[in-house]
Design brief:
The chain has 13 helices and 6 strands. With about 325 residues, the protein is mostly helical. The chain has a two-stranded antiparallel sheet.
Length: about 325
Amino acid sequence: MKRYLIPLIIVALLFSIVIGALLWWRKNSKPVSNDTKTVDFLVVKGRGANQIGEALYDEGLIISPLAFKIYVQVSGKADQVQAGEFRISPSYSLTQVVDTLTKPPAELWVTIPEGLRREEIVERFIAGLEIEEAEGDVFRQEFLQATDADEGYLFPDTYLFPRTASATLVVSKMRSTFEAKIGEFEEDLKTSTLNLNEIVTLASIIERETGTDKERPVVAGILLNRLEIGMGLQADATVQYAVANTKCQMLNAKCKDWWPIILKDDLTINSPFNTYRFSGLPPAPIASPGISSLKAVVSPEETDYLYYLHDAEGGIHYAETLGGHNANIREYLGK
């Protein structure tokens, strides 16, 4: 009899554990309440199951963050939860909550990086808002018409929009975000010798010409030095902008490369954006600068440099004279 006692005890313990787990799951997977109103719940990009579960609990949408984590892991749905805004009710069971989070959200995140021109920006929104091809053509045309004079003023950021958002709404939000950001250093703007359009234009060039926050104030100082002595800016990015304006289809933004490699003949293109041919600033920005490029223009680093170049690894090298610049070209570019 004793030899059966231990196995029976083990079976009883296992049975108790299973029953306990089932009771725990039943309790913690129930709806929080009978309230059928929906709550807008935001899933931020990069959040894991732990963080999402805690947020759902804090919003009063689930009973147990642990139950949420266990369920999404066991069901294999942890990687299916999408970023965006969802409408969830406290009357949803845990499984209903998870199912909602794995379906297309009511609102979507769209990230616009620094240094894009408006034709590139609209394509990011068409893709990010998952707009179908036919509607995409309408959205693109509306966006480009609405931003005809807004190049540089569409602030690069991560935005949350309804998937049904109109191009007009998107443009309005990007422009208002720019105004809010530029307002953060309004006092610095007053001390600048440049007006707002000139600041944004120079910042857009710096955004395309530099790779790090550290080098931007130095390059800003260099370009301002050139402007002060009447020297051409000679910025490749402005020529790229001019070439793309000529070669690309502006109405539908169908272009393989909005920032083409510059050829020698391109340096003579007859465009006010060609800073090799025309001195001074271009008439308007060439892309949307980020906050660090804007700050670099209003707070440039004072320097005696007039030249800069990037080597093959992206490192930047400065020179005060043309002779020093040519030496850098030979040393770092092998030309």
